[in-house]
Design a protein that fits this description.
By secondary structure, this protein is α/β, with parallel strands linked by helices. It is 31% helix and 22% strand. An eight-stranded parallel sheet has the order 4-5-6-7-8-9-10-11.
């Protein structure tokens, strides 16, 4: 068995901004695991918010001893980007060895296309209104917020896309007071969900204040170990492969979260179709799907996922799984 890891850079179609900063490129790590006959592929997006850099994550991957299987991997690496890329590459390799699709190996029904959110990055109200108008034909828009001036942005987006379903992501940028002030307006403007309004670790007030719109944990939810601390504070969890450390734990988290009564959102970092491919399996049946990473890129991988009016389609075997 041979394992290699390389850094790839994908240009974004336009600058992407959230409350923590802006970027014009997506820096990803691509993992290839070969047994000499077949090769499996996986991608991860190291995320500075979680103390990751491309260099630190590549070092974690390079340090793995071979041979390796998914079961052993769960104990060797913690949840995070490194384990995600390796876990997904092992799924891909297993599928190719077996001559089956990954969903068959996982005991899942064959996946279908999914309507996905399209994300509008943080900007001035006027520019966000213009962006909303350009994408008003999309059934689900996700708005990046998280500043003291978000009311004007909310109004502007709803004006630009009066018929679209809207979800909001504050990326930990609000205080409890700001969220309480905004909550009635979220209802008035028809916002369907708000994602991570308060900082992780400082979100206890969510159990004490009204939540008229469903609140989804993102930065507060990584894997199954996160669930006990979410009780009473959140209505949904955002499952991302780069947080769970791969599809193996993500499927387990989805099952556990459902059992505890949480709604499911499946999200992504800004990556290529290779990163989204396993998440399409995970997202089947989710209340909210946010797998728009490739739509934000100027260029994607070969054998890229298909996005059309039906949504994002499952991957072809030439891409993954």
């Amino acid at each position: 068995m041979e394992l290699t890891v390389e850094q790839d850079v994908f240009r974004l179609a336009e600058v992407f901004t959230i409350s923590r900063g802006s970027r014009s490129e997506a820096h990803v790590l691509t993992v290839r695991i070969s047994d000499g006959d077949q090769a499996g592929w996986g991608e991860c997006v190291p995320y500075a918010r979680y103390g990751e850099t491309p260099e630190s994550v590549a070092k974690q991957i390079d340090g793995l001893a071979l041979p390796l299987d998914r079961s052993a991997l769960q104990a060797i690496l913690p949840a995070g980007a490194a384990r995600n890329a390796v876990d997904c590459a092992l799924w891909d390799l297993e599928a190719k060895r077996a001559g089956q699709r990954a969903w068959d190996l996982a005991g899942l029904p064959a996946p279908g296309p999914l309507v996905t959110a399209y994300t509008l990055s943080l900007d001035t109200p006027a520019k966000m209104q213009a962006a909303a108008a350009r994408h008003a034909h999309r059934p689900l828009l996700k708005i990046k917020l998280g500043t003291p001036d978000d009311m004007a942005r909310l109004e502007a987006v709803r004006s630009g896309a009066p018929d679209a379903r809207i979800i909001v992501d504050a990326n930990e940028g609000w205080t409890a007071e700001a969220y309480t002030d905004l909550a009635p307006h979220l209802v008035r403007l028809g916002v369907a969900m708000v994602e991570q309004p308060l900082p992780a670790g400082e979100d206890g007030m969510l159990a004490e204040i009204a939540r008229p719109v469903p609140v989804c944990a993102d930065e507060s939810c990584h894997d199954r170990a996160s669930l006990p601390d979410l009780r009473g504070k959140y209505d949904m969890v955002n499952i991302k492969l780069d947080k769970t450390g791969g599809l193996t734990e993500a499927l387990a988290l989805r099952h556990a979260a459902r059992a505890e009564g949480y709604g499911i959102m499946v999200g992504c970092m800004v990556g290529s179709s290779l990163a989204m491919a396993p998440a399409v399996l995970l997202a089947q049946g989710a209340e909210v799907v946010d797998l728009d990473g490739p739509l934000l890129l100027a260029d994607d991988r070969e054998a890229a996922l298909i996005y059309d009016d039906a949504g994002v389609h499952p991957p072809e075997a030439t891409l993954w799984g």
